[in-house]
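Let us practice reading a record.
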Amino acid sequence: MTDLPIQKVLQKPDVTGRMVRWAVELSEFDIVYESRGSIKGQIYADFVAELSLGRAQQEVELDSQWLLSVDGSSNQQGSGTGIFLEGPNGLLIEQALRFAFKASNNQAEYEALIAGMLLAKEMGVRSLLAKSDLLLVTGHVTGEYQAKDPQMVAYLRYVQVLKGTFAAFELVHVPR
């Protein structure tokens, strides 16, 4: 099964040159073309199989500290974020998001933090250490800086709500 253009070689009699030689060579092997079909379902199945663990082992892993690394950015072409959620035993979940709305760098960083926290919450993580390279966001969340802009206040409130869903949560600033 393949998505390569070999179907044209096997099914078209009016090919020329090298294609004719390939068609003759392949005809003796009784090869039949079959479309591969969608691999989307297989990706989901592999993901579930990778994350499905024994119940006792899963509880132990969720109790240990997970690491969330987030980075949001914005430019003239748009804005987006990258999220890395690292669990015990080398488990790594990567996520990239592109926003359908205009966002400043500060907003993109908050969106990254929120998306990462929601991902960790969905995974059932109880202890989370988050890392961000934007000092303003980490300062807001840790209480070192005061949020004055109404949008930043709204983002901060939502992060505080999400923060309460974890038994332990810490956000640290990581210099670029």
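A brief commentary: Residues 105-123 form the longest helix (19 residues).
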